[in-house]
Amino acid sequence: MALRLSHPFSDPPPCRLSFSKLPIRRFSFSVHCSLAATDESQKLVLEVKDRLERYHETLPVGKNGRDDEDMILWFLKDRDYSVEEATERLAKAIKWREDFGVSELTEESVRNVAESGKAFVHDLLDVNDRPVLIVVASNHYPGMYDRSEDEKLCVFLVEKALSKLPAGQERILGIFDLRGFGTENADLKFLTFVFDIFYYYYPKRLSQVLFVEAPFIFKQLWKITKPLLGSHASLVRFCSVQTVREEYFTENTVPTIFKH
């Protein structure tokens, strides 16, 4: 499976304005340019919204629906403001959310598999004000639970992490604790699923992925998996527990599992 990671957040479409020769007008130009860019973005949002209503009228409305303007703008930015591409991506994402039952996921519905301790959302943010989703790989055993249950837990935790985004922050941090990882924990299909949902349904929501204390066996498996992930692989950083403590958290915010 070949995946490609879209370009980083692009700036809004340039506005066509002429510079004034008078220095005193520079500030008004800047404001005018910003307003023009905002107006253009809103125009594109409404265009996508109209297309979704005309060609995908059966899709749900409301939050994360076809009339959610914040969601539409996010996908427009991801697709470099291409109305056609954003409409296509959004239609698929909204349909997936409906079919998967994302809005129906609750703490109770994923409690059984969550009690394995294989993944959770950290209560506190990292030093860059990012919500943190942690996976404890040694607690994951393929086949112990139905794959759909593992996938539901994954999506529920992604949604939970995103709900903790503070104002001005747009992406989350993913951490895989690989201490104690063995061949019995290897699950390439599930790892691919994780990266897939971020690419197709949560574009640009994943800021970085830390592989902590990766043993030799995992590094060998990574050589196999890496080509399947394409540019997604560039999000990954192999590091130590010490690096996690010193570079990503403070003494008061570091997750308990990384304190020692």
What would you note in describing this structure?
The chain has 260 residues and is of the alpha/beta class. The protein has 2 domains: 40-100; 105-258, CRAL-TRIO lipid binding domain (Phosphatidylinositol Transfer Protein Sec14p, 3-Layer(aba) Sandwich). The chain contains 8 helices and 5 strands. A 5-stranded mixed β-sheet has the order 1-2-3-4-5. Helix 1 crosses helix 2 and helix 6 packs across helix 7 (216-229). Mean pLDDT is 88; it is low at 1-33. GO terms for molecular function: phosphatidic acid binding; phosphatidylinositol phosphate binding; phosphatidylinositol transfer activity.
Briefly say what this structure is.
Helix content is 44%, strand content 10%. With 260 residues, it is an alpha/beta fold.
